[in-house]
Automatic annotation (TrEMBL):
Single GO term (MF): transferase activity
InterPro entries xref list: Glutathione-S-Trfase_C-like, Glutathione-S-Trfase_C_sf, Glutathione_S-Trfase, Glutathione_S-Trfase_N, GST_C, Thioredoxin-like_sf
Residues of the GST N-terminal domain: 4-89
Protein name: Glutathione S-transferase
Organism per entry: Variovorax paradoxus
Domain annotation GST C-terminal: ranges: 94-221
Pfam families assigned to the protein according to its UniProt record, in alphabetical order: GST_C (PF00043), GST_N_3 (PF13417)
Keyword annotations from UniProtKB, A to Z: Transferase
Length: 224
């Protein structure tokens, strides 16, 4: 049986908005999706009034509106969705297992992804010291995740929010020149498993079509 929330506000190239959309679809939640205005300069202009009202300081998507509940930040929205719609669960069972998965989701956003952000604007200067350092840091993180997959198919044991978060970060890393390689075969296989989930495909395919419509590169593993 499906359940319904009011609205998710995202953007056509919002990695964090895509995380929330995927989570909602995985849980079978029906929602109204609003894509806020987006310019060719990667600016979300003009700012959507609901985004300004609910997230006035950062003025960023995603934003969730569910009755009287109004939230921003993908991780906070993850937690709300898990409490509000506990089945199917997207955190592992057990306090320790959930803690490990939450740590992985946090590291994806706050440890791995900042290296990708450093590559923005450096695609024509990938041999520069900042670009090389960022790519090296990404490769080091890939190796760490490869180790986690030695005994199971997903980062925290079973499929979870941690996988959603890191998968989306990997797409942006690939786009910016820090793709994973055959040095991490288990991680490549994990990426393909996540890619092929219906909820993930439903969110990522429109994003890739948007990229292609603007003449921007689409990662090779998503060109099918």
């Amino acid at each position: 049986m499906t359940t319904t929330i009011t609205k998710i506000l995202s953007g056509p190239l919002s990695m964090f908005g895509a995380k929330v959309q995927i989570a909602a679809l995985e849980k079978g939640i029906q929602f109204e999706l609003t894509m806020v205005p987006f310019t060719k300069d990667d600016a979300y202009e003009p700012r959507h009034p609901d985004v300004l009202r609910i997230n006035p300081v950062k003025q960023q998507v995603p934003v969730l509106i569910d009755g009287e509940v109004e939230l921003f930040d993908s991780t906070q929205i993850f937690e709300y969705l898990e409490d509000r719609y506990p089945n199917p669960a997207l955190w592992p069972e057990g306090i320790a297992g959930r803690a490990r998965a939450r740590q992985l989701e946090h590291k994806s956003d706050e440890v791995f992804f900042p290296n990708v952000i450093r590559l923005f604007g450096l695609q024509n200067d990938m041999q520069s010291a900042p670009a090389v350092a960022a790519c090296t840091a990404c490769a080091r993180y890939y190796a760490e995740m490869e180790g986690l997959l030695a005994t199971h198919d997903y980062l925290a044991g079973r499929y979870s929010f941690a996988d959603i978060a890191f998968y989306m970060a990997c797409i942006f890393a690939d786009r910016k020149g820090a793709a994973m390689t055959d040095a991490t075969p288990r991680l490549v296989a994990w990426r393909d498993r996540v890619r092929d989930r219906p909820a993930v495909h439903a969110v990522v395919e429109p994003m890739m079509k948007f990229l292609a419509s603007q003449g921007r590169g689409v990662p090779a593993f998503l060109q099918r």
